[in-house]
Amino acid sequence: MWEIDADVLESVSLGAGILGTGGGGNPYVAKIWARGELERGARFRILDPTEVPDDAWIVGSGGIGAPTVSVEKLRRGDEEYRALRVLEEHLGVRFDGVVPMEVGGGNSIRPLIAAAQAGIPTVDADGMGRAFPELQMVTFFIYGVPPCPAAIADDKGEEAVFTAAPSPQRLERLARVLVVEMGGTAGMAFAPMRGTDLKRTAIPRTLSVARDVGHAVRAARARNADPVEALLAATGGSLLLVGKIVDVERRTGGGFARGTLRLVGSGPYGGEMRIDFQNENLVAYADGAPIATVPDLICVVSTDAAEPITTELLRYGQRVAVVGIRCHPLLATPEALAVVGPGAFGYDVAYRPLDPGGPLPWTALA
Question: What CATH code is assigned to 226-364?
Answer without folding.
Answer: 2.40.390
